[in-house]
Design goal:
2 domains; 5 helices; 0% strand; binds zinc ion
């Protein structure tokens, strides 16, 4: 079932949302507001957070080679793996902040930029695509943002 607060898909047997912890047994009571809250910005924000977390893990892997049982030194295009690792972690952290901001519907530009940076952090390649999908969802949900119009 979909979480009425953040929109993420949960196991039907789940008692609480895996992302935001909302008790799912109460969803019937929350139903009137559920449709309003379940939106592209929430799903996009959740995907951006996921992409950012993957980017952070990816960065740790480059900074501490072998920590994940793989060897990044044979990936030559990134240059220095440690520098690359810190850059991707920085980008991914901005991405996580952007994703959280998206769940709150504030600062639309930060959410879109966060999606972009989360994608750039490349979380094991798949994080790149997750981040792009998240950015596209948030980018197309600008109407949901209260403060978005102020930034043009
Ligand atoms: Zn949730």
């Amino acid at each position: 079932m979909k979480c009425p607060r953040c929109g993420i898909e949960n196991e039907t047997s789940a008692h609480t949302c895996i992302l935001c912890g909302l008790p799912l047994e109460e969803t019937d009571e929350l139903a009137p507001g559920a449709a309003r809250r379940r939106s592209r910005a929430s799903v996009g924000g959740a995907l951006i957070i996921l992409s950012g977390i993957m980017g952070i893990l990816n960065g740790i892997y480059f900074i501490a080679p072998g920590s994940l049982g793989l060897d990044p030194t044979n990936i030559t295009w990134i240059g220095d793996p440690v520098t690359f690792g810190y850059l991707t972690i920085a980008a991914a952290m901005v991405g996580v902040v952007g994703g959280l901001t998206s769940l709150q519907r504030t600062a639309y530009p930060l959410c879109v930029a966060g999606g972009f940076l989360a994608a750039l952090s490349l979380g094991f390649t798949i994080g790149f695509f997750i981040g792009l999908v998240g950015m596209a969802l948030v980018g197309s949900s600008r109407k949901e943002f209260v403060t978005g119009t102020r930034f043009g």
